[in-house]
Amino acid sequence: MSDYRAVFRCIAGCGEEYPLDEVVYECRKCGNLLEVSHDLDRLSRQSGSDWRRLFDSRTGTTEWPYGSGIWSKKEWVVPSINNDHIVSMFEGNTNLFWAKRFGAMMGMDDLWIKMCGNGHTGSFKDLGMTVLVSVVNDMIKRGKNIKAVACASTGDTSAALAAFAAYAGIPSIVFLPANKISTAQLVQPMANNAIVLSLDTDFDGCMRVVREITKDNTIYLANSMNSLRIEGQKTISIEMVQQFDWEVPDVVIIPGGNLGNVSALGSGFKMMLDLGLIKKKPRIVLAQAQKANPLYLSYLAGFREFHPITPQKTLASAIQIGDPVSVRKAIRTLKEFDGVVEQASEDELANAAALADRTGTYACPHTGVALAVLMKLIDKQVLSKKDRTIVISTAHGLKFSEFKVGYHEGTLSDVNCTYANRPIALPPDIGKIKEALEREFAARK
Questions:
Q1: pTM
Q2: How many helices (H) and strands (E) in the chain?
Q3: In angstroms, what CA-CA distances link 54 with 45, 48, 57, 276?
Q4: Are 333 and 256 in contact (CB under 8 A)?
Q5: Helix (H) or strand (E) holding 284
Q6: 282 and 254 Cβ atoms separated by less than 8 Å
Q7: Angle, CA of 369, 347 and 291, to the nearest 5°
Q8: Which of 143, 232, 325, 366 has its C-alpha lying 20 to 30 A from 423's C-alpha?
Q9: Residue 129 and residue 189: Cα distance in Å, rounded?
Q10: Alpha-carbon distance 294 to 307, whole Å?
């Protein structure tokens, strides 16, 4: 058993706390969300340099479970869990892509993309799901009556839940908004034998349903209002700093829908600061699609108020959310990290993704939102070209092939497909092929 301790604690500071193996998602005293709170006094008995050495020594190994990018930081995640009950596919450890040519277009030479989609199910949701499903597996192994794990999803959460639950042999239930996610995202939970319920509503409607269904404590809630998910996702911050030999970037830009990812980033950086691994904070930028922008609207009003909206259909379907459950955590994080919220139109996000693709990426539409926001904030001089900037890519572009095809065929609504690249249809005539190639060479100079 670990000497370290972590509990659920109310984010409002009312003093309520609960064990991590208790089925609870909101404070029973005041109704606010919970967060995982660690015993920092105990953790601080080990120096920052000792923690850095420990984490570095585990990276890339096959020792169970420390080869995972998440479980290599086990003491900072769920310290007391039995290693044999951890459900891991050695997720995390995703690469930083030096966006050299794309950055040069804006006069930046220190622009990076954290490729969180280069994982088992193709999105950053794996990082939180390994933690949540591991805790559920641990509870089941110790006799707790949990018969399934459930989530509402715009695609990526359901894929991650279905895969990790299947790996553990735990039934999963996913609630999806009908006709609002990509084919690739729909087929993932189907393939992993989840119970897939396609509802005639949007994500917010699915979220209302799953919250009602999981009032039965034998069905465990896997959405990001469950702060176990945040514990996995916060390791993105630690991993990025570790990849730069423990130097902190100046700016991190992340797309946001349900907004758990923003507080996760802040949690990771804050823990490193508190325990002496780093000495400064980055600036965090939250990027929203213009058609699903409730936090952007709140930001314009100085976060004095927040009003849910009915989101419009956006190409960035995974963040098409008008009533994010983690909004309070997100606002708190943005205030602590000199935060900025900016939005991107459909035209801006699609063209930003396509332009980045021309330099070697294969950006999903949500990464397109973040890239478009980067371009806007550089143009407005809100961000400096000299800053080391990391854009979080939340999913693999292959999950959104319809988006890519539609762009290059010029069929996307509200998008002037500036960088469309159609195949050139020709007969197998060498002369005509050479003529076509010469035209293309001339056009691309």
A1: 0.94
A2: 16, 13
A3: 14, 10, 5, 14
A4: no
A5: strand 283-289
A6: no
A7: 65
A8: 366
A9: 14
A10: 7
Taking residue 134's Cβ as centre, other Cβ atoms within 10 Å add up to 26
Q: Which residues pair with 36 in a beta bridge?
A: 8
The pLDDT confidence band at residue 245, using thresholds 50, 70 and 90, is very high
Nearest to 389 by CA among 112, 121, 117, 84: 112
- Closest listed residue to residue 150, CA positions, set 129, 131, 167: 129
Residue located via tokens 């802040």: 266
Tens digit of each residue's pLDDT (9 = 90 or more) over 290-302 = 999 999 999 999 9
> What is the rounded distance in angstroms from the CA atom of residue 300 to the CA atom of residue 16?
33
Closest of 322, 237, 289, 261 to residue 125, by C-alpha:
261
Cα 318 to Cα 340: distance, rounded to the nearest angstrom: 21
Residue written as tokens 């990082």?
A: 127
- The span from the CA of 198 to the CA of 153, in Å, is 10
In total, the chain counts a number of residues equal to 445
Which tokens sit at 158? 């359901």
Among 151, 198, 197, CA closest to 170: 151
Q: CA–CA separation, 138 vs 158, rounded Å?
A: 21
CB neighbours of residue 30 within 10 Å: 13
Sign of the torsion angle spanned by Cα atoms 33, 38, 40, 44? negative
Question: Could you give the CA distance from residue 52 to residue 50 in angstroms, rounded to a whole number?
Answer: 5
Q: What is the distance between the alpha carbons of residues 172 and 164, in angstroms, rounded to a whole number?
A: 9
CA 371 from centroid of its chain's CA atoms: 15
Buried b / exposed e along 170-196 (16+ C-beta atoms within 10 A): bebbbbbbeebbbebbbebbeebebeb
Average per-residue pLDDT for the chain? 95
Using one digit for the tens of pLDDT, what is the confidence trace for 316-329? Answer: 998 999 999 899 99
Ordered strands of the 111-115 beta sheet: 96-98, 111-115, 389-393, 251-255, 283-289, 340-344
Q: Fill in the DSSP letter of residue 55.
A: H
Pick the closest to residue 43 from 292, 320, 275 (CA basis): 275
Within 8 A by CB and 6+ apart from 114, the residues are 94, 96, 97, 236, 240, 390, 391, 392, 393
